[in-house]
Design brief:
The protein is α/β, with parallel strands linked by helices. The protein folds into 2 domains: about 1-120, NAD(P)-binding Rossmann-like Domain (Rossmann fold, 3-Layer(aba) Sandwich); about 145-305, Dihydrodipicolinate Reductase, domain 2, CATH 3.30.360.10. It has helices at about 10-20, 80-85, 105-110, 130-135, 145-155, 190, 205-215, 245-260, 310-325; strands at about 1-5, 25-35, 65-70, 90-95, 125, 140, 165-175, 195-200, 220-225, 230-240, 260-265, 285-295, 300-305.
C-alpha cells in the first residue's frame, strides 16, 4: 500500500483527487492539507465525501508519505517542491510550476522567477500516452494543464503528417470548474450564466505546453461557457498534401490500441457522432474525432475531456499508477454519466 498525501486539497482539483484516492485499492491516506481549513472535516468543503472520517491538516505537520500530490496555484507550489523532493518522496504537481522546461520560458509566461529551476529538467511532463516510459522511472511528474491535454493528445498522433506546423488554430470551450473555486466578476453566476466569453486569446499560458510537447506553433482562443465540467476543443489543421479518411482514422486507431483511455469517435449517425464532454463527466477518457476537407486540404479535429479527470485528477492518478508499476486504470474504471 502507498501512503499518499495531498497538499492543497480544498479546491475542485484536490477534491476530485481525494474522491479517486479514497477508493483506490493500493492507497492509504497520510495528510490532506488546507491551511485555511486545518482541523475541519473534509466533507465540510467537499460534501460528496460525507461518510469518510477525514480531516484537513496543515503543511506544517509531519508527513510519512510515499508520494505527495501538490494541488497549489502556480507560484506557490515551488515554495515547497524542493524541500519535499529532497526527502526522497515521489511528487506529482498538478499546478503549473514544473510544466515548462526552462526558467526563462516559465518567466515569460507566468511573470515569476522560478525558485527551484533545477527541478524543471528533472520533472517529466505527465501525459502517459506520450511519456509513459519516462514516468515509470521518475520521482517527479508535472501534471499537464487541462486545455493543453485536450490539444496535445489530439495533435500528437498526427505529428508525422505533412502539416503546416506554423498554422495551427485552436478553439477551446471550457467549463466553469476549470477556473477553480475562487470568486471574481467573471465567475459570478449572473455574469457567467448564458455567456460565451473568450479569454486570454493568443496568449493563454497552456500555449507554451502545447508548443513544447508537439513542436507545432499554435494560435489559441479559449472560451468560457456555461457548463460546469468539461472541455471541447476544435483544432484546425492546414495540410501540405492530401490525405484520405481511412489513413487518418488508422493513425488514431493505432494510437488508441496502445492507450486504453484514448478513444476515437467518428460515427455516421446519432447526436453523439463526435466527441462530447457531457458524456465523459466523471471519467478519465479522452475522445477524438475529425473531418477532412480534401478539396481545400484542411482537417478539423474535435477532442473532449472532463477537465477535472483526464485534465487533472484522473491523469494524476494514472501517473501515480505508472510510477508504482500498477495497472494504469486502477482506481479509474469509471464511465461517464448519461443522461446528465
Amino acid at each position: 500500500m502507498m501512503k499518499v498525501s495531498i497538499i492543497g486539497a480544498s479546491g475542485y482539483t484536490g477534491g476530485e483527487l481525494l474522491r479517486l484516492l479514497v477508493n483506490h485499492p493500493e492507497v492509504t491516506l497520510d495528510r490532506i492539507t488546507s491551511e485555511s481549513n486545518a482541523g475541519s472535516f473534509v466533507h465540510m468543503i467537499h460534501p460528496n465525501l460525507r461518510g469518510f472520517n477525514i480531516k484537513f491538516s496543515s503543511i506544517k505537520d509531519s508527513f510519512d508519505s510515499d508520494i505527495i500530490f501538490f494541488c497549489l496555484p502556480h507560484g506557490v507550489s515551488m515554495d515547497y517542491l524542493g524541500e519535499f523532493y529532497d526527502t526522497g518522496v515521489k511528487i506529482i504537481d498538478l499546478g503549473a510550476d514544473l510544466r515548462l522546461k526552462s526558467k526563462e520560458v516559465y518567466k515569460s509566461w507566468y511573470g515569476l522567477d522560478h525558485k527551484c529551476p533545477e527541478l524543471l529538467e528533472e520533472a517529466v511532463y505527465g501525459i502517459p500516452e506520450i511519456h509513459r516510459e519516462k514516468i515509470k522511472k521518475t520521482r517527479l511528474v508535472a501534471n499537464p494543464g487541462c486545455i493543453a491535454t485536450s490539444i496535445i493528445m489530439a495533435l500528437y498522433p498526427l505529428r508525422h503528417l505533412n502539416i503546416d506546423r506554423e498554422r495551427i488554430v485552436v478553439d477551446s470551450k471550457i467549463g466553469s470548474s476549470a477556473s477553480g473555486d475562487s470568486f471574481n466578476a467573471s465567475t459570478h453566476h449572473p455574469e457567467r450564466s448564458r455567456a460565451i466569453r473568450c479569454y486570454s486569446p493568443i496568449y493563454h499560458r497552456h500555449t507554451a505546453e502545447v508548443e513544447q510537447e508537439t513542436g507545432f506553433k499554435v494560435t489559441m482562443a479559449p472560451h468560457a461557457i456555461e457548463m460546469v465540467r468539461g472541455i471541447f476543443t476544435t483544432t484546425y489543421l492546414f495540410l501540405n498534401q492530401p490525405y484520405d479518411e481511412k489513413e487518418i482514422r488508422g493513425i488514431y486507431r493505432e494510437f488508441s490500441e496502445e492507450n486504453k483511455f484514448f478513444r476515437v469517435v467518428k460515427q455516421k449517425k446519432g447526436i453523439y457522432r463526435h466527441p462530447d464532454p457531457k458524456i465523459l463527466t466523471g471519467s478519465n477518457f479522452f475522445e477524438v474525432g475529425f473531418e477532412l476537407d480534401r478539396e481545400n486540404r484542411r482537417m478539423i479535429v474535435f477532442s473532449a475531456i472532463d477537465n477535472l479527470m483526464k485534465g487533472a485528477a484522473g491523469a494524476a492518478v494514472q501517473n501515480m499508477n505508472i510510477m508504482y508499476g500498477l495497472e494504469e486504470d486502477m482506481g479509474l474504471k469509471y464511465i461517464g454519466y448519461h443522461p446528465i
